[in-house]
């Protein structure tokens, strides 16, 4: 039997955010069990949500809907940039809650589903796709599926970048 090659970083990212098919999971998980190099990459890929959980000590959000992942409450200021040919607005938002593969953000205006956005948080840049947007008082809440997370280096964060 031929040994499985290392999963790509994209496959590992998709595994960490639970976006692989059952067939793909059945090939990635056995590899992770025996490959410390690939298993060592997972904490970075899921680190953002887990770091916030540890820092905040927040309990999971009790959603009425059934979710595969726990959501963790937060109330962090952030900036959001829309990456659309028709709108390239940037505005101040608040991260309401997050999970390993998504976040909910309070936004000042309605956002169409499937718009790609960048969310600039204190320690990270999150690239994601708007999955839904619903009214919430005078504002809206947008559900964003995380596609990638880039962390600021500790040196950049210390310098105030």
What is the fold named in CATH at topology level of the largest domain? Thrombin, subunit H
Determine the structural class based on helices, strands and strand pairing.
Answer: alpha+beta
Residue-averaged pLDDT = 77
Q: How would you describe the oligomerization state of the chains in this entry?
A: single chain
Roughly what fraction of the amino acids lie in strands?
Answer: 35-45%
Briefly, what CATH class of the largest domain?
Mainly Beta
Order of helices and strands: HHHEEEEEEEH
Q: What coarse outline follows from CA principal-axis ratios?
A: elongated
Strands, total number: 7
Distance between the termini: 50 Å
Looking across the biggest beta sheet, what order are the strands in?
Answer: 2-3-4-7-6-5
Largest sheet: 6 strands, antiparallel, barrel
Q: Output the radius of gyration.
A: 17 Å
CATH architecture field of the largest domain:
Beta Barrel
Number of domains: 2
| Low-pLDDT windows of residues | 48-66, 155-161
Task: Output the CATH homologous superfamily of the largest domain.
Answer: predicted glycosyltransferase like domains
Measured as a percent range, the helix fraction is: 25-40%
């Amino acid at each position: 039997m031929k040994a499985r090659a290392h999963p790509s970083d994209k496959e590992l990212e998709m595994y960490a955010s639970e976006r692989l098919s059952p067939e793909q999971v059945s090939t990635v998980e056995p590899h992770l069990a025996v490959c410390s190099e690939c298993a060592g990459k997972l904490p970075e890929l899921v680190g953002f949500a887990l770091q916030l959980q540890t820092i905040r000590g927040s309990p999971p959000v009790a959603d009425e809907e059934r979710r595969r992942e726990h959501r963790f409450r937060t109330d962090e200021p952030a900036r959001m940039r829309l990456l659309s040919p028709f709108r390239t607005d940037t505005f101040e938002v608040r991260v309401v809650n997050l999970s390993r593969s998504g976040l909910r953000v309070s936004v000042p205006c309605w956002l169409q589903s499937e718009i790609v956005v960048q969310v600039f948080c204190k320690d990270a840049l999150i690239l994601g796709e708007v999955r839904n947007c619903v009214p919430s008082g005078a504002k809206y809440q947008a559900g964003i599926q995380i596609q990638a997370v880039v962390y600021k280096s500790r040196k950049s964060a210390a310098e105030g970048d």
